[in-house]
């Protein structure tokens, strides 16, 4: 396995890019450590697949370098990078048995028969497909086909990285959780460096130790699932992660580092940095409370989602969502919104502009 470094990486599909808007990938610098579980998370068109293709060698970057264990591999062909990749659709041979499919990557590299048998048995046990080993792949269900595709990516123990490109997209929703939990278990057992590309926050947050969130070709935050949820560095992260996403409220700044919403002062997590630009207050619904005091609002909708209710209230022209664990208010009722101070922060032009409380 390998540490992967992306240094000053940029890419444009245009021959002569003029400005940042011409780049599918804006400047990216990051390290993925040996043996880690990582996710690239973002909406369609944000640059995830472009970045994955650059790492695998299918695409040459316009600028910058890719290093495996500090060795520059930018100019190396895909077959020289020693990468295993699992795609959106299962890549297996229907005419082969499960055993033959798992063995193929090793047999193709001239690995000894005894080693192949040992490794196939090990991966089959990890995937819990021992009883299927002599069944032709054509007879497998879609989730089992994708299991075998994953196994083909994991069967080699000499790869630098295993990359998963939206591997659960074609799987039925009720089967996704099985494969997702199995993949997490596999990483914990084999300790391979893994990069998981997805637009699904649940997949990213349940699989990865570190998540790279991308928007418009730019990395907007790298962090653990807890860090991304608890302290989004950008409004996009707050909106994209969480269900429902973070509330963004128009902020009115005044002298002395104070802000207000609907004419009422709002206490922030810490001092404000910088000046100017579009300012917004960010607060997750989990940290909005309904009480006797606070910003007055009228309940527009109440959604019972099982363990709690999501209350949508209108404060002036602004919709504010709150997660309420107990009995919710009634539609049309007047409520008062409170914001937990250590989870309330100011954003300036999308980026966090308050210092965290120490």
Automatic annotation (TrEMBL):
Assigned keywords, A-Z: ATP-binding, Cell membrane, Membrane, Nucleotide-binding, Transport
Record carries keyword Cell membrane: yes
InterPro entries to which the protein is assigned, alphabetical: AAA+_ATPase, ABC_transporter-like_ATP-bd, ABC_transpr_FbpC, ABC_transpr_MalK/UgpC-like, Mo/tungstate-bd_C_term_dom, NA-bd_OB-fold, P-loop_NTPase, Transp-assoc_OB_typ2
Pfam families: ABC_tran, TOBE_2
Domain ABC transporter: 4-241
Taxonomic superkingdom: Bacteria
Molecular function terms, GO-annotated: ABC-type ferric iron transporter activity; ATP binding; ATP hydrolysis activity
Organism encoding this protein: Candidatus Rhodobacter oscarellae
The family this protein is said to belong to: Belongs to the ABC transporter superfamily.
Protein name per its UniProtKB record: Glycerol-3-phosphate ABC transporter, ATP-binding protein UgpC
Taxonomic placement: Bacteria, Pseudomonadati, Pseudomonadota, Alphaproteobacteria, Rhodobacterales
Record's GO cellular component terms: ATP-binding cassette (ABC) transporter complex, substrate-binding subunit-containing
Gene3D superfamilies on file: 2.40.50.100, Nucleic acid-binding proteins, P-loop containing nucleotide triphosphate hydrolases
């Amino acid at each position: 396995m390998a540490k992967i470094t992306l240094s000053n990486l940029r890419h444009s599909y245009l021959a002569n890019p003029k400005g940042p808007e011409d780049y599918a990938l804006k400047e990216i610098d990051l390290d993925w450590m040996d043996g880690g579980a990582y996710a690239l998370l973002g909406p369609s068109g944000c640059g995830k697949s472009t970045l994955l293709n650059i790492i695998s060698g299918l695409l040459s970057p316009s600028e910058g370098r890719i290093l495996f264990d500090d060795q520059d591999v930018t100019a190396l062909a895909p077959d020289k990078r020693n990468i295993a990749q699992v795609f959106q659709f299962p890549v297996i041979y229907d005419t082969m048995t499960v055993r033959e499919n798992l063995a193929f990557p090793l047999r193709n590299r001239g690995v000894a028969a005894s080693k192949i048998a040992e490794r196939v048995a090990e991966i089959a046990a990890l995937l819990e497909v021992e009883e299927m080993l002599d069944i032709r792949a054509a007879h497998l269900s879609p989730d089992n086909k994708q299991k075998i595709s994953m196994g083909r990516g994991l069967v080699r123990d000499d790869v630098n990285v295993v990359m998963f490109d939206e591997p659960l997209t074609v799987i039925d929703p009720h089967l996704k959780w099985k494969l997702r939990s199995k993949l997490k278990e596999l990483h914990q057992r084999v300790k391979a460096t893994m990069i998981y590309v997805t637009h699904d926050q649940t997949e990213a947050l349940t699989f990865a130790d570190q998540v790279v969130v991308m928007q418009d070709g730019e990395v907007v935050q790298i962090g653990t699932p807890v860090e991304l949820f608890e302290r989004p560095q950008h409004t996009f992260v707050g909106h994209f992660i969480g269900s429902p996403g973070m509330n963004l409220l128009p902020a009115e700044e005044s002298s002395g580092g104070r802000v207000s919403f609907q004419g009422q002062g709002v206490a922030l997590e810490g001092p404000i940095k910088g000046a100017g630009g579009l300012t917004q207050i960010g607060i997750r619904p989990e940290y909005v409370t309904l009480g006797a005091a606070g910003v007055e609002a009228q309940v527009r909708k109440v959604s019972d989602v099982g363990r709690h209710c999501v209350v949508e209230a209108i404060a002036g022209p602004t919709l504010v969502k709150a997660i309420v664990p107990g009995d919710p208010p009634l539609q049309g009722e007047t409520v008062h919104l409170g914001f937990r101070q250590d989870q309330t922060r100011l954003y300036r032009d999308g980026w966090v502009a308050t210092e965290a409380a120490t």
